[in-house]
């Protein structure tokens, strides 16, 4: 039988006040940003900006992050299924 072991250096518990919903202004800003014709390139550049020359990998990761099917339970609770990504490559290519 396998057991889970977690080695932790620091643990900080957040209260529920940090789980705020988006404000009307933030929603409007996100909608405006989504209408820009270069949104795909903007998201690619902002995902792991210290990784360069790996735009194809970052675009694939974006597709994984923004896609995904919802898991709807009998109680009508809905959850997003887990995202599983396997990156293969030479050591030192920023896979972790």
Strand order of the largest sheet: 1-2
Largest sheet: 2 strands, antiparallel
Rg of Cα set: 18 Å
> What helical percentage do the residues reach?
25-40%
Question: Mind explaining what this structure looks like?
Answer:
The chain has about 100 residues and is mainly alpha-helical. It has a domain at about 25-80. It is about 30% helix and about 5% strand. It has helices at about 25-35, 40-45, 55-65, and strands at about 70, 80. The protein has a two-stranded antiparallel sheet. It starts with about 25 loop residues before the first helix and ends in a 16-residue tail after the last strand. The model has no long low-confidence stretch (mean pLDDT about 75).
In short:
The chain is mainly alpha-helical and 96 residues long. It is 32% helix and 6% strand. It contains three helices and two strands, in the order H-H-H-E-E.
For this entry, give a set of tags.
96 residues, mainly alpha, two-stranded antiparallel ribbon
Helices and strands in order, then pairings?
Blueprint: H1 24-34, H2 39-46, H3 55-66, E1 70-72, E2 78-80
Antiparallel strand pairs: 1-2
């Amino acid at each position: 039988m396998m057991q889970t072991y977690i080695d932790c250096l620091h643990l900080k518990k957040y209260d529920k006040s940090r789980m705020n919903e988006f404000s009307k202004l933030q929603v409007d800003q996100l909608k405006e940003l989504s209408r820009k014709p270069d949104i795909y390139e903007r998201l690619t550049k902002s995902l792991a900006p210290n990784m360069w020359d790996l735009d194809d990998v970052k675009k694939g990761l974006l597709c994984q992050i923004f896609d995904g099917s919802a898991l709807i339970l009998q109680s009508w609770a809905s959850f997003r299924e887990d995202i599983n990504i396997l990156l293969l490559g030479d050591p030192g290519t920023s896979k972790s």
